[in-house]
């Protein structure tokens, strides 16, 4: 749902799929996350999970 939202609103993103790139599981765990998706901006987490309310904030940026 998050990818669909970003694509529909023409927000560019870089995807790291934990199934295809398991090294990102450790990366997310080190940052304290236990679920995906995690949206980062400038390597800082800003959204965890599908949060349309917070994703809409990206439209204003």
Structural features, described:
- By secondary structure, the chain is an alpha+beta fold.
- The chain has one domain.
- The chain is 38% helix and 15% strand.
- The protein has helices spanning 2-8, 23-30, 52-59, and strands at 38-41, 44-48.
- It has a two-stranded antiparallel ribbon.
- The longest helix is centred in the middle third of the chain and has 8 residues, at 23-30.
- The protein is globular and about 30 Å long.
Q: Largest beta sheet, briefly?
A: 2 strands, antiparallel
Given as residue ranges, the uncertain stretches (5+ residues, pLDDT < 50) are none
Output the helix-strand order: HHEEH
Radius of gyration in whole Å, from Cα?
A: 12 Å
List the helices and strands and how they pair.
Blueprint: H1 2-8, H2 23-30, E1 38-41, E2 44-48, H3 52-59
Antiparallel strand pairs: 1-2
List keywords for this structure.
Glutaredoxin; Thioredoxin-like_sf; Glutaredoxin domain-containing protein; alpha+beta; two-stranded antiparallel sheet; 61 residues; 2 strands
Task: Summarize, please.
Pfam families: Glutaredoxin. Helix content is 38%, strand content 15%.
């Amino acid at each position: 749902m998050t990818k669909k939202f970003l694509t529909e609103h023409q927000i560019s993103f870089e995807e790291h799929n934990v199934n295809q790139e398991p090294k990102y599981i450790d990366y997310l765990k080190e940052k304290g996350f236990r679920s995906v998706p995690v949206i980062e901006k400038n390597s800082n987490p800003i959204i965890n999970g599908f949060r349309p309310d917070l994703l809409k904030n990206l439209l204003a940026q």
